[in-house]
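Lab manual, section 2.4: Encoding a predicted structure.

Procedure: take the sequence of the chain (668 residues), apply the prediction step described in section 2.3, and record the output as structure tokens. A sample record is shown.
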Amino acid sequence: MKRVFFIDDSGPPLGHMILAFGAYLGGFDGNFVWNRIGAEYPSNMSVWSLRVLPALCGALCVPLVYLLTLELHFSHLSALGAALLLLLENSLIVQSRFMLLESVLIFFVLVAFFSYLRFYNAPKSSWFRYCWLLLCGASCAAAVGVKYMGVFSYLLLLGVASFHTWKLIGDHTISHLSVCVECVCQAVCLLVVPVLLYVFWFYVHLSLLHRSGPHDQLMSSAFQASLEGGLSRITQGQPLEVSYGSQVTLRSSASQSIPCWLHSHKANYPIRYENGRGSSHQQQVTCYPFKDVNNWWIIKEPGRQDLVVSSPPRPVRHGDVIQLVHGMTSRFLNSHDVAAPMSPHAQEVSGYIDFNVSMPTQNLWRVDISNREAKSEIWKTILSEVQLVHINTSAVLKLSGVSLPDWGFRQLEVVAEKLFKAHSSSLGWTVEEHRYGTSQEQKEREAELNSPTHIDVDRKISFWAKFLELQWKMLTVKQENSEHKYSSSPLEWVTMETNIAYWLHSSTNAQIHLIGNPVSWGMANFSLLAYQLMAAIYLLRRRRGFKDLPDGVWTQFLSLGCVCVGGWLVNFVPFLLMEKTLFLYHYLPALCYLHLLTPALLEHVNAHLLRSETHQCALGVCVSAMLVSVFVSYRTFCPLTYGSPELSANQLQGLRWRDSWDILYRHR
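Recorded output:
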């Protein structure tokens, strides 16, 4: 709402834009800070507008499941059963009533599958069917744009569409032209349109959020400088081309959440480390995660004594050999064949002090611009990422990422490492702050470091550069806290061993928990196992030459498995491989596929496996009993779903059907 840039590791920005749109409709000004779960809203805040869109998406999932069941060629009764299971699913109700994105994600996934099946089932002569295909592509883009979890369902849909297209290509009753038109339309609607819309979400995101915010430090210097405020205020008017005599700060390009700058100070390495190894006892060079005057270095041309920029300035180019002089101590950046303090496989980096011993200075560095566009590329402020290669040893200056002990003030270690050993992501350095030096004397130079020059330069980076960087950061940024009170493993979701407490009244037992409907949850698991068992038996018998089902029914059965069982698999199995903090709500998309499966599978059993009317009547009685049980279970957990009515401590204890559930209560 305040146009402040942010980055979220859960995925792209469309979901947050949808929530912001609802807030905008309600007149929210963005002044409330969500920094504590359970904090009370101000009396003048329109809470309904913040929650209306997730609630609307959650409500629309019910008729969508009904329509999707019909498109799978099952009866209205099965469609009604699937809709009722979703309607009475306590966990989806809870998730839809808050400013959360799972209901929005599920809505777009269901729209995508419904519109694709509507396209596939429509008469081939109807051109209107391609509108459904276009809606499918747009819904896929929206699902991925809300959360990266949407990619799983999108890939499943692409697999189903690819299978149908392969069958179409082999159909000799259709002309070559019709096949080509069909393939091109599907490629455009299911591949090109989603990609274009996905990029469009980020274009809107980056156009709206043009102000500096707390997440800036995750991004490169060039990205930060393109935002209003923050780094752009510091770098405004800086010289673009780095020249001999330039005063610079060098930021590490290593992919870590906290930035740091090449730094030195008036403290030496200890003569001997704790493990008994010796050091050069020269001035420490580190990487410091804060702005500091000791982060300034001067680019010096070897063979010349001047530490000022000439007129006209002589720019530094790719391949030039330079020296780096520390601005506040005048020590040369140096490396030699001495093991680094925390990384003994690499070389120590220091500020050279002449102790009149047999350790000559080795302070020449070659500038390699890794993102250059031409062989004689000029080193540019913010835009160029450089590697500094030590001339004597061919080692590259890099951030090891290891914290130094107390003698190094817990700052980060900087080393020089052979290129074939070093990880490429930690080798780059970017000039962030830049001044043209004009003072030769040390005291005048120290004063000059606090007075930037002003040469107007336009260094805006393109949308595509920002888009690609943001993609990489969202995929690689790691959560700081790997554990949470309500985090859980995927295997605990299947049997609902866990819950999440969303809200607890400050003085009563009224509370809201993310807990599913235990009965429908159990039915979903049973349906999953039953389908797999039935599919295995059918396949074995068909292999032996027994066709228990007509071809049309067999195709219907396989389609049900591809959509429902396949949807569960692609939305569950990937979480088993993830190393991130996971919660019960991550299982909701997979669960919706199983609620779709249960009634359709019961209809299949009733129509094709049960021969006698007695068995069919018995199944009908069992299904009725199960639906009643689902409703009773829903009503039982309503106090934890809606937060009312308030229950006593004994009643809350009665709702703790599993010992692992964390239900809170006060004895009064």
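Check your result against the sample. Confidence is low (pLDDT under 50) at residues 452-458.
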